[in-house]
Amino acid sequence: MSSHYAAARRPLNWLEKLREVNWRLVLLITLIASIGIAMQYSMAGGHLEPWAAPQMVRFAIGLLLLIAAALVDIRVWLALAYPAYLVSFLLLVAVEMVGHVGLGAQRWIEIGPIQIQPSELMKIALVLALARYLHGMALEDISKPHRLLVALIMIAAPAVLVLKEPNLGTATILLADGFSLLFLAGLSWWWILPSFAGIIAAVPVGWHFLHDYQKRRVLTFLNPQSDALGAGWNISQAEIAMGSGGLTGKGFVQGTQSRLSFLPEKNTDFAISALGEEFGFAGCVALLLLFAIVIGYGVRIAMASRSQFGRLVAIGVTLNLFFYIMINAAMVMGMIPVVGIPMPLISYGGTAMLTVMFGFGLLMSVHVHRHVELPRSSGGII
Amino acid sequence: MPLFDRKDKSRYAAFTRRSLMTGAAIGTVLGALGVRLYQLQILKGDEFRTKAEENSVSARLVAPLRGRILDRFGVELANNRRNFRVLIIPEQALGGVEAALDTVGRIILLTDRDRARILRDIAANKKFMPSTVAENLTWEEFARINLHLPYLSGIQPDAGETRDYPFSDELSHVLGYVAAVSVRDQEADSDPVLELPGFRIGKRGIEKSFDPEVRGTAGVSRVEVNAYGRVIRELSRDPGAPGKDVWLTIDRELQKFVVQRMGSESCACAVMDVATGDVLALASTPGYDPNLFNVGIKPTEWRGLLNDDHHPLIDKALSGLYPPGSTFKPAVALSALDAGAITPQFSIFCSGSLALGNHIFHCWKKGGHGHVDLHRGIVQSCDVFFYNVARRLGIDGIEAGTHKLGFGKLTGIEIPGERAGVIPGRAWKEAAYGAPWLEGETLNAGIGQGYVLATPLQLCTMAARIASGNAVSPRIVRVVGRSPQPRPELARLQFPERALAAVQAGMNGVTNEAGGTAYTWRIPDPGFEMAGKTGSAQVRKISEAEHLAGVTKNERLPWKLRDHALFVAYAPVSAPRYACSIVIEHGRIGQHPDVQMGRDILLFAQQRDPLKLAPAYPVTAASLAQAPPPA
């Protein structure tokens, strides 16, 4: 134990930090991403182009980003929390005004050659900002109405903007991330239980504010056969793809469903249906177990951190990952309506890959800097 | 975990507690996902696997090309021609079937009747099975459909092959026809090719009896399709096998001559090779155009065929049953000689009638023939002579002898629908009427009347058997594909040669002796002479009063009541090669049209015989050597 104290008091140099990185977790993440790349390869009919190769490049960049983020001192992240949130928020506002309309929704903004999805950035930024806000608060302060109101505004403001894009899935994840952080920081049950009741009561009211396509998705979800060639198509075809895999699947690059354009978004949101088809129940359970281990690592890292900021950031990015997995898997398996949420590390897509890897980087930074003490009033080193 | 901040202690405790709760929640959710996976992939896996198969791989049958039917020299009697057609796949008609048909109807003509038929087909078929909208389109119509194709959802143009019978009604009863597959056909035959839209199977004639050979086997093209049914690529292709060609024994030129010669009579004719049993011509008139059934016969045309009193749909040559009348007499004579009931020298006195009990049996010649022996009996067709022969022979003898000549049983020709006819006997009558045989009925049987019934093909077989003394049976299929049909070894019929010669001489006398019933219409050309036997079959009862007053001439009776005219013959007399039988329904009028017909047919058949063709110039060894080589 004494060595930890020593380590905590003396700032680590970058080589020591590199040694502190949890390489087993990095290996695990690489393994999951490899599965994703393999599926992209398979869905292209056994070709690296057009999906597997870019996905590999993105993962490589993501890996560098992870390591880089891990080496950055946690105090830097603490200091950057609010600015990052502000920038993300402004980008969201910008997307609202000038955003590129992709797939019927304004989600992307172009800065030079790169397309940015500010809503993805916001997921990380919200975790950082909320963690910082809650870090500076004693347990009993959190439940005070004016403190709570600030937190709620921090959560709701970006969520509303994202919902207007419209992007129901990401908005849901933002809300889920935010509320879980409040819950984990120790928000009083007196707030939690009535809110739950309120949310359930508000569902019928919220229905009116949904877009037509969102309503249709919900209705289609409730009865996919009603529109088997239209909106219910994704659901029934994804189910067929998953289901036809059976116990061990049809074999690599043997999936007929995923390869033959039965799934319009086969390589993005519905990517795991290809896994289900080609590797069956065994493959899907294996993937879920790998993710469960990653989540387990995340929770352990959170609980091992000596700062509330570190704990909340670690659990925040872990839960963010979990929400992705849960919503995507449940959607592909026909348990919830179709929302545009990719499967982390598996689905094709640049922004999602980079945000997820950056999230892991933050998690790793918390791990590397688990002994760093952050005074509650501290604004970090910046 | 050491704490640097006292206030952090409670936060850390709360965080740990709630982290563990969250971890439990995460575990529960992941577990739920696992359960759903289990349900989806293990429990319902098979169901979804089937769905995925249907989704992606589609086996499409490739219709085999139907084999041709050829005459003995290779002339195509039934072949295939290009058929441009338009199909509809109801499932893919996005605006509905009605709308799709409306659009098609603006491009090509669709009558209300067509539409009703299409909708009926669609209702009977599965939604993904194509149904025929229109076929036998002209190239222009077909091109118009293809031009408008982008706006025609669910419509599929198709260039297939369809059956064609170039000689129309000339061979209708031999070839039969093909027609659309009925529900009953599908139940009886599991061949999946029957489900193809517009597929045709043989319904009658050779088309029916050789349908399995002519049909071929369907090819299978396995294609990968996307969700819209568009073919991505062909996975494999089994080309199937086209149907085999069937070579008939028919000589189309002779057939054409026969049919033309039969004209508009309600008539049946068979021409057979005496040596082999090959049927060279087989006709029943009037016929019908088999093409009508292929393209879909109109109700008016169908009613016309059904209501015609000349019965064009009935194959009279095989399934028409006629009392053979006097054409039966050579068979009775041969049976009697064979059984020893008479000798060729047997003679009687014909006074014009014979009394048996209280019944009088009349000869066709009112004054009688006077002294009649076997030869004169046949040549002048004396009824009283054959009454006496029949009495001596008895019904059992008639039964046995005529069976040997092919009566009373199927000839076994390869065309469906043949009937066996009737040679009555004691057992037969007991079974049919529950009454004992009467001697008077033996007398009637002796002149081919009463219960005796035979088909024209059986009469032709009889002529061939008497001419050759062999157990010749008619056959009409020579080769299927590349394999010649087995030809049964010809057995002698075991008739005494003397008996055969006596009957043959009698038949020769019919045509070639002055006083013979057909002498006027003989073939005079040397080497081409025919032998034959005339006959007529009453279709009405002639009362005793009418016999006394004089039998009404056929010419004065309505068509339906006139006697049938029958004629059997073979030629050439010296070395019989061609046997022929003719039945003209209600045709016993004027100058023996049946005999004239037989004469012309046998003459034509012999003239076509390559062995009989006289060289244009005398062939000598010297002329062969000088002849220029063939071009």
Please provide a written account of the structure.
The complex is a heterodimer of chains A (382) and B (631). In chain A, α6 (118-135) runs parallel beside α9, α8 (145-164) packs antiparallel against α9 (168-184) and α9 (168-184) packs antiparallel against α15. Chain A is built from 16 helices and 3 strands. Chain A is mainly α and 382 residues long. A 3-stranded antiparallel β-sheet of chain A has the order 1-2-3. Chain B is an alpha+beta fold and 631 residues long. Chain B has 2 domains: 58-248, Alpha-Beta Complex (Penicillin-binding protein 2a (Domain 2)); 317-612, DD-peptidase/beta-lactamase superfamily (Beta-lactamase, 3-Layer(aba) Sandwich), CATH 3.40.710.10. Helix content of chain B is 38%, strand content 19%. Chain B is built from 23 helices and 21 strands. In chain B, the strands form 6 sheets. In chain B, strands 2, 3, 4, 5, 10, 17 and 18 form a 7-stranded mixed β-sheet that branches. In chain B, strands 12-11-21-20-19 form a 5-stranded antiparallel β-sheet. In chain B, α10 runs antiparallel to α22 (593-608), α14 (329-339) packs across α16 and α16 crosses α18 (439-446). The longest helix of chain B is centred in the first third of the chain and has 36 residues, at 8-43. Chain B starts with 7 loop residues before the first helix and ends in a 5-residue tail after the last helix. Chains A and B meet through α9, α12, α14 and α15 of A and α1 and α2 of B.
